[in-house]
Give the backbone structure.
Amino acid sequence: MNSTKNLNTVNFNPMRDVNLVRWFVMPTIILLIAINIFPLLWSLILSFTQYSAKMRTEWGVNPEAIGVGNYLRLLGDPDIWTKFITTGKYVIMSVGGEMVLGFGLALLLQTKFKGRELISTLLVLPMTMSPVIVGLMWKLFMDPNWGMFNYVLGLGRIDWAQNPDINLYSIVIVDIWMWTPFVMLLSMAGLSAVPKSLYEAAEVDRASWWSKFINITLPTCYPLLLIALIFRVMEAFKIFDLPMGFVGRGTSAPPLLATQLYTETFLTWKTSYGAALGYIMLIIIIAITSVLIKYLNQAKQ
Amino acid sequence: MAEVELQNLVKQFGKDVVAVKNLNMTVKNKEFLVLLGPSGCGKTTTLRSISGLEIPTKGKIILDGKDVTRLRASQRDIAFVFQLYALYPHMTTYKNMAFPLKTQKMPKNKIDEEVRKTAKMLQIDHILDRKPKHLAGGDMQRVALGRALVRRPKVFLLDEPIGTLDAAFREEMRTELKKLHVDAGATSIYVTHDQVEAMSMGDRIAVMNQGVLQQIDVPHEIYANPVNLFVANFIGSPGMNFVNCTAAKGDEGTFLVMEPDGAKLEISNKLKQTIVDGGEVDRQLVLGVRPEDVKVSFEKKEGYLETSVFVVETMGSFNIVDLKYGETIVKARVPASVRPELEKRAYINFDMDRVRLFDKETENTIMN
């Protein structure tokens, strides 16, 4: 009893395994607190104040606490509801398209054919690029004057990026192009986990292709599909970089929440107002994902 | 009414692996046929070919008078019980059993009736709403059987269905399976590598080795009159003893000269006849004898072979004594009370009405 106490308290040895582990973890934790946790809490405080990062600050004078004023103003703004709806539409269309196409591609890639590995690798490439670059690239691609997109499809001079009536859909297309491989990869992992004997049993049980798909393939892949859905919904809800590269920050940019957040915070410099919007988005994302995670836990069980 | 006929069945994987070589076999209506053989002998491939899960390279499969060789599994009226059950993991017992009926678009109340009836017969009606994950091995096996039974197929194909259960339970399931087969009145083909299972369950046994059918017959015939050395050794626990010998003809008639010590062994008149008729005199033969047909004496006896006790295996109700005759081990079955000390001299002879003679070169029996 005594000897163990001595080891722990008296003979502190910085090179002991446990202590070494602490040394290695420390920098990461400090960094996380500095650039992640502190700003998170600080912006929460700011969201209850009136504050602009551009204004000169004297401690105690500015920021000025105004309680839930920012939130009330935000939720009372009819414009913000359009943005919610647009963002919702965007999430449903892009994530929906990605799920269907990604799972479909994974199903197609199940059949063994020559060059299957090469095609899978090529299909994954869009995902590895930076969203801003993807946006810029597609902007050139879809340019009304000399873009390849209109030319190849023979569509005349449609201005995919700047026409506010359609550029939301253009971004959906680009988003689907970029993130379908992600769903595809997870689906492929799910599909490879389906035991072959189940398909054989279903074959003996005289199940049709569709019945096998519904009763074996989908339920077995369901947990992984849910994980893909959670990731994609989260990402799509806060999409910013892709439309930024694709449309730019002009007035024709589609009214998405994250774009609005950027405008409020960094263009009109209403910092605390932007922080409040950020928190509203955070709450919505947490709400949606916690519902999905509940389903995921049910499925895993 | 369902008869399964295999004609010149060949199944090849890739270029080099021939799993089944030119198999001809007829499974009679309502018969319980056991496909027996060591692992890799092609028995499972044969079963899968009958089911339609594998398409044979050559040959024909006739089911109930109809050529089904090119039909898919779903187009043949068969049920398959998989070795590892292959239950649908996200479905309850009830849904697992209802599935093959649902795919046939049977009305719901009819499905319910059939499932409950079958579940009751298999004594799994209390676990109908449980998923496979929450079932014990034996129950999973019963559900797998239930899923096969519920649709009353023409042919049941069972791929080592009780191989993964523990020993005591396996014995129980053996009886139960045989009873189910009789009750269902269907033709069953059962694959196993366990010869005890085969002997106790099969109406007939088909022994396979390296893709070739060795012998197909009723269990006691396979046991008593194996057609070659492989079958003789594979069936029985322990298998048949083999002693090399040569047939010779002297003044007093035909006898066997045993290797290595050249002892003479008198044989029955029937065996003499077989040897003479077959022109086997002076040929190298193998004498096969079951452990229970070895007569052991610990006193010197005229006409007996001299051996020494090598190992005594205690089996409970009887003992197996391994006797060393030259370099050959002869296993003899003796009463449990007989436990000779090692190295002791022992003298053996065989029940000549029950020994089998094989040609050493071809390994086939010289008897009919």
